[in-house]
Amino acid sequence: MASGWKRAVGNARSFVGNSMGGLRGGSSVASWLVAGTLAYILWVRPSQQLKKEQQEKAALAAASDSYRYVEKRKPIPDPQETGLVYGNKNGVKKTE
Hints:
The protein is 59% helix and 6% strand.
């Protein structure tokens, strides 16, 4: 009975070790650290910087023109007819 769960734990450790490329110990941790750092530098940080630049650009545009029109209501979705409805509809369309 005791050997059954020990074997299961050993199999799980082997599976995890093999799925991580077969590396063990400090080299495995170091390789994951390098991969994570590269992923952050190449993908995460540029997307964060782009988002920050877009927000700054939008803030400058909003501050430059204080009298520009700003939509304060959310449109009501109307998938059956026109797509968007602002306020009251024209009612039933009359056919002649």
